[in-house]
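Work Package 3 (structural annotation) set out to generate three-dimensional models for the target panel prioritized at the project kickoff. During this period the team completed the workflow that converts sequence records into discrete structure tokens, so that structures can be stored uniformly alongside our sequence database. As a representative example, we reproduce one entry of 121 residues exactly as it appears in the project archive.
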Amino acid sequence: MTKRQNRMVLVALLIAGAILAVTLLFQALGNNSNYFYSPTEVAQGKAPIDRSFRLGGMVAVGSFKREDLKSTFFDVTDYKNKFSIEYTGILPDLFREGQGIITTGSLVMVDLLPPKFFGKT
């Protein structure tokens, strides 16, 4: 093969490698490209059930309850749907009712109660 043919083969291989890398990247991201799910998206079944995910919304006014030093309960809403959150740990200083938050956790079905979202802020 001539030098020109060698260069063309090399360029073709580089382009094919780049396309393969981008394809693998998008496959790996899958549904993880969404930074957080709103309560409405979770209610519609768009959030993953088998693993933890991020839930974002506003802390509903009047929903904050503390049982002991570690367990905190509150609702996250997008003003269409709301989810009850059980948080264990120390809350951040900026946490308050009416504040926007993003929390990480997983859905837990408890008898006939609405799903609870155990999470971290």
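The longest helix spans residues 3-29.
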